[in-house]
Amino acid sequence: MQHLSRRAALALGLALAPLAGPLSAPAQPASGATGAAAAPPPATLVADSVTRTGQVLVAEGHVEVFYKGTRLKAAKITYDQAKGTIQVAGPLVLIDASGSSKVLASDAELSADLQNGILHSAQMELEGRVQIAAAEMQRKAGRYSSLDHAVSSSCQVCAAHPVPLWEIRAHKVVHDMVTHRIRFTDAQLRFAGVPVFYLPFFSLPDPTVKRTPGFLTPKLSESTLFGFGVETPYFLPLGPTRDLTFYPFLAAKGSRTLGLRYREAFNTGAVEFRGALSRDQLMPGDTRGYLFGDGYFDLPRGFQLKFQIQAVSDPNYFLNYGLTQVDRLESGLELSRTRRDEYIDARLLRFHSIRSGDNNDTLPNVVATADWSRRFALPLIGGSAQLDFRGMALRRRSSADVVGRDISRAGFVFDWRRDWILPEGLVLTGLGSLQSDLYGVHQDSSYPATIARTVPQAAVQLSWPWVRAGAKGASDVITPVAQLIFAPRSVPAVPNEDSVISDFDEGNLFSLSHFNGVDGIELGRRVNLGVTWTHYDPSGWTFGVAAGRIWRQVTATGYDPASGLGGKSSGWLLATQAKNRRLEIINRAVFGNGGGLNKDELSLRWTPPGRFSASTSYIWMTADPASYPSLTTVATRQWQVDAAFPIRGNFSGQASWRYDVVTHRADASSLNLTWRNECVSVDLSVARSYASATSTTASTSFGFSLGLTGFGGGSASGAPVGSCQR
Q1: b/e 318-353 (16+ beta carbons within 10 angstroms → b)
Q2: Which residues pair with 28 in a beta bridge?
């Protein structure tokens, strides 16, 4: 019967509303009409019972009123048509048309259009995150909500914790629904009920605002280099697609820094620039700083243009101010296009090293590259083929012989591959390659001015996958592979610019070349032998092993000792991997011909359920006495640990540690502690940086930031809203 009575009340409400004009705004003349009035939009009223006595309409029981998107819920509503007022007996809930503002009150007296009036014992909720409560609230012009002697907070309040972690108490609070600002007059900031700060007047964006001028969360720091410091970021939107953020930083030991970040989005791309200017006592009288910029633009016909700018005043700046640990700066342009069977890429780059011991006069400063790659099916003999045209030019500032060498190169490479399935599951693969390049060499008397080099290669590969299925769902796949490669025993020598650093792993074991660039070439006949074994367990575990070695007719040169690739035969490669959904362990080792270890890389990653995760890695690499400047001349033994972990309740932490076993000291370490709930975020950090490739000065820094979330669209990722967790 209740359901039927409400349907009857709904019909009655809809019938009475347009006749008496309840809850309707005054009629306005229709656009373009003379003397004709447009019909006022009717209100919709739903209640358990509706009665009318003269010009007074009374609705009782689960009352709901809808007018121009505004929704009012109450226990009883009395509408006086003569006075144009609505008396509301609560508890009542008033929700605006956007749904972002909700008002709860004990009772109210409102205008017929619900836009003006007085609400008693009112609490306004904005976006479900910010609450403003007062004994009385006035709604004016459908735009302003004014509350006297109000309390505002984004913290949840419950019986167990009646005092919020933080609150703003003000003589008056006004919310402007047009500008989306909240203005506080004679305001006091309190933590746990204790007054800590007073302001006669200030304003904040409400939670619906995503971009508005204002100060961001300040950050306090303490370091051995600069002492106590304060950073107070200020965000300035320059329109819907542009913004500028200032990062002023002042420290007790004389450091004054102004950091900037500019961002702009376009219909076809975006740009971002970051930089800072500093004056400090580390380099008295000098202005220090850096500038980083990057962006991309989508061009017609599927092309994309990217750019990058990196510049810094001195090698120690990044380490001193705790910024990125980049030690080689790269600036330039890149134009590229990627399609299913085609790739085009052209780059113009400028490099500048800030590593200790590097000489920028003898390092390549300007490098230009161009590549065009096309993949296609080869007629007649079948298989897939790829044709690459490529070019490169590099310049050094030095004009000295040999160390000031400039190079230009243009050429192509043609690759072909086809597989045949033989009886018993054998897979026969044919491979071919033809590489031809023309070099121009300048300022190097050890090479001719012009060098032409053509290198044909052909290979036959035989693999035999063995598959075994276990009774309980486990399976194993074992694949032995033998690859025989034919290549010329000698070719004209060329300067090696792009094949200095090499690696030996399961990904390139069966490659025609183990150099990572064009200049390096493997000569003569050679055999690549290897085997892989993968075990699949129904519980989710997989375990894999790959092992292999290379035997050559001609001794290979140009490889660094740690790679294990040099000599008449390479070292032994042994790679293992074990993983499931939570744990992954990878180890890759290269053993020399004498059985000694050349290189070993071990990594472990663990991600159990919850917020905990940890990873660790260890690298062991032999020294290279005749190393290129980019490699180390001493042995490498480095251990790194990274972890993110919950502590208790809303506490969480992150830790990072890197240790150099050779020097018996940590290279860098950091610890971050965070406490978050629905209205507060607290971050504490401590970092220790030691001597690096760019600096011999060690430093320790501490950081602290406190964020009061909720205003301006901010929210903390901690306890769920309404949990009242402390």
Answers
A1: bbbbbeeeebebebbebbbeeeeeebbebbbbbbeb
A2: none
Give the strand pairing for 542-556 and 572-579. antiparallel
Handedness of CA 400, 403, 406, 410 (dihedral sign): positive
Q: How many residues does the chain have?
A: 726
Structure confidence by residue, pLDDT tens digits, 331-346: 999 999 999 999 999 9
Provide the number of structural domains found in the chain: 2
- CA dist., res. 115 & res. 42, Å (int): 15
Q: What is the pLDDT of residues 582-621, one digit of tens each?
A: 999 999 999 987 778 889 999 999 998 877 899 999 999 8
| 147 and 68 in a common domain | no
- Would you call the peptide bond into 91 cis, given omega within 30 degrees of 0 as the criterion? yes
Q: Could you tell me if 111 and 136 lie in one domain?
A: no
In this structure, the answer to whether residues 10 and 85 fall within a common structural domain is yes
Q: Name the 3-class secondary structure at 157.
A: coil
Dump pLDDT digits (tens) for 36-47: 445 556 778 888
Tell me how far apart the alpha carbons of residues 132 and 124 are, in angstroms, rounded to a whole number: 5
3-class DSSP state of 633: coil
Q: Which pLDDT does position 697 carry in this prediction? A: 63
Enter the pTM of the model. Answer: 0.80
Residue 380 has a CB neighbour count (10 Å cut-off) of 4
* Whether residues 186 and 98 fall in one domain: no
H or E element that contains 15:
helix 2-20
Instruction: State both tokens at 43.
Output: 């209100």
Q: How many angstroms separate the Cα of 487 from the Cα of each of 63, 523, 581?
A: 89, 6, 44
Q: Is the dihedral of CA 620, 623, 624, 629 positive or negative?
A: positive
Going by their DSSP bridges, the two strands 214-215 and 194-205 should be labelled as unpaired
Please count the CA atoms within 13 angstroms of the CA of 561 that sit on its side-chain side.
17
Listed residue (664, 657, 668) closest to 693, CA to CA: 668
Domain span at residue 151 reads: 128-209
Q: Are residues 108 and 148 in the same domain?
A: no
For residue 661, the model assigns a pLDDT of 87
Which CATH number is 109's domain given? 2.60.450
Q: Has residue 396 been placed in a domain?
A: no
Over residues 227-244, the pLDDT tens digits come to: 999 999 999 999 999 999
Query: Residue 22 pLDDT > 80, yes or no?
Result: no
Question: Do 64 and 32 lie in a common domain?
Answer: yes
Query: Is residue 542, in this structure, part of any structural domain at all?
Result: no
One-letter amino acid of 710? G
Report whether 694 contacts 318 (CB < 8 A).
yes
Helices (H) then strands (E): counts for the chain: 2, 42
| Residue that terminates a domain, selected from 189, 209, 229 | 209
Those residues with Cβ within 8 angstroms of residue 8's Cβ, 6 or more apart along the chain or in another chain: none
Kindly state whether residues 142 and 46 are assigned to the same domain.
Answer: no
Residues 523-558, buried b or exposed e (16+ Cβ, 10 A)?
bbebebbbebbebbeeeeeebbbbbbbbebeeebee
Domain identity same for 67 and 21: yes
What is the residue whose two structure tokens read 């972990």? 645
Q: What is the mean pLDDT of the chain?
A: 86
As a whole number of angstroms, the distance between CA 257 and CA 279 comes to 7
Q: How far apart are CA 70 and CA 99, in angstroms?
A: 8
pLDDT per residue as tens digits for the range 253-288: 989 999 999 999 999 999 999 999 999 999 999 999
